[in-house]
Design brief:
By secondary structure, the chain is mostly beta strands. The chain has three helices and 15 strands. Strands 1, 2, 3, 4, 5, 9, 10, 11, 12, 14 and 15 form an eleven-stranded mixed β-sheet that branches. A four-stranded antiparallel β-sheet has the order 6-7-8-13, with no helix packed on it. About 35% of the residues are buried. The mean pLDDT is about 95.
């Protein structure tokens, strides 16, 4: 975190025309329980793999991303826990990790339209880790259900080590999307393939059944987070 010439400016951070391909699938509940940190809990063994195209984020510029998230609850409050995330630009990686605690690593995610298919892919080095496809704009979705999902909080496990390598910060962080402008939402037939990788182990939560595909275009402000549980204070 350099004192001069930082890699990102102060917020707030506004994203315009942020595009998503989200494939929700059912996985092994025992394996999912191993990766969801308490006090978060899940009701169904569902996982979302998301591919993102950010065309204009304040201070962060143009980049792409991929994430693996889990629908969870915290004391009855529905939200989404980000288990893994990959971006292709350094600035938003450092900002996301330092400010919120997004578990971001450098890779090569991509979201594009390939003829009649929306195609999401994630390469870690030369290895293809994830591929998702969805029929392009097969059916429009109503705004209410999508807005409800976008208004839900996100949860992150923020970990910062001390100079000796022991944990200095270990917190559960909650954040919200604000000033949401939904520009389009569609669904269609979807498929997802995950390949094993030592440093991008998305396949450790295997795909047992595809539940849904979702395509979104949205503007929103990514609000800064708040600490909802301090694991070190609880020791």
């Amino acid at each position: 975190m350099p004192r001069t010439s930082p890699s990102y400016p102060r917020g707030p951070y506004r994203f315009t025309d942020r595009e998503y391909l989200i494939v929700t699938y059912r996985t092994d509940p025992a394996l999912l329980a191993e990766v969801v940190p308490e006090p978060l809990a899940f009701e169904e063994p569902l996982v979302r793999v998301e591919f993102l195209r950010m065309s204009g984020g304040t201070g962060f510029g143009r980049y792409a991303g991929a994430a693996q998230t889990v629908p969870v609850r915290l004391k009855g409050e529905a939200g989404s826990y980000t288990h893994a995330m990959f971006l292709d630009v350094h600035g938003p990686i450092s900002g996301g990790r330092e400010l919120w605690g997004f578990p971001q690593k450098l890779a090569a995610p991509r979201l594009e339209v390939a003829h009649d298919v929306l195609l999401g892919s994630l390469d870690y080095g030369p290895v293809r880790v994830a591929t998702a496809t969805m029929g392009y704009k097969h059916a429009e979705l109503g705004d209410d259900a999508v807005h409800a999902m976008l208004r839900e909080p996100g949860f992150l496990l923020k970990i910062i080590p001390h100079v000796d390598g022991t944990p200095r910060v270990c917190e559960l962080v909650r954040y919200f999307r604000r000033d949401i402008v939904l520009k389009g939402a569609w669904t269609g037939p979807a498929a997802l393939s995950l390949a094993p990788h030592a440093l991008a182990p998305l396949s450790a939560l295997p795909v047992l059944e595809i539940v849904s595909g979702l395509h979104l275009i949205v503007d929103y402000t990514l609000a800064l987070g708040e600490v909802v549980f301090d694991y070190l204070a609880a020791v």
